[in-house]
Design a protein that fits this description.
Blueprint (H helix, E strand, L loop, with lengths): L2 E4 L2 E4 L2 E3 L13 E5 H6 L1 H7 L2 E5 L17 E6 L6 H11 L6 E6 L6 H6 L4 E2 L6 H4 L20 H6 L1
Parallel strand pairs: 3-4, 4-5, 5-6, 6-7, 7-8
Antiparallel strand pairs: 1-2, 1-8
Length: about 160
């Protein structure tokens, strides 16, 4: 079973990301993460099934699932290439604008050097495709503090220092 980093620990990943679904093809048993388009087309049936989450492509906005967030145990954000940073904004929007309390998972082609910054944007799970999760775990602590405000530290450094 694949592994991922979640809440600062390496754990077994019980979710399966479904990248494409052919017309008439059913979903596998167990926990699945489906594309937004599939969720939108089959929303009622997927809600009834349970154990279904949604992944957003880098050009899809969290607003597309805003009404469904209370029913989703996790939202995955896909990084199609390491240099596509739009997913950082999606993670932050889920936490700050939609007050989403479930798991926000990074999937796709991000790298371990981005874990610290992903965590500051509200991500709490990372399904690394190119790194050993045990070695990558240390990347969550690459920096001891940051100057800018974030999801994890809403008060900027200069305000904390002045107090």
């Amino acid at each position: 079973m694949p592994q991922l980093i979640k809440h600062g620990q390496v754990i077994e990943d019980s979710w399966q990301v479904i990248r494409t679904i052919e017309e008439g093809e059913g979903l596998p048993d167990g926990k699945v993460i489906v594309p937004l388009s599939y969720w939108q087309a089959h929303r009622e049936a997927l809600l009834a099934r349970g154990n279904v989450a949604v992944w957003l492509a880098s050009d899809e906005q969290p607003s597309a699932i805003a009404d469904d967030l209370p029913h989703l145990p996790l939202v995955a954000i896909d990084f199609p290439v390491m240099t596509d940073g739009r997913g950082f904004s999606s993670g932050r929007a889920l936490r700050e604008h939609y007050n989403y309390k479930g798991e926000v998972r990074a999937i796709g082609q991000f790298i371990r050097d981005q874990l610290y910054h992903l965590s500051r944007c509200g991500f709490d799970a990372y399904a690394l495709e190119t790194s050993d999760p045990h070695k990558a775990l240390a990347s969550l602590n690459d920096f001891s503090d940051a100057y800018q405000a974030s999801v994890t530290q809403p008060v900027p450094f200069f305000r904390r220092r002045a107090g």
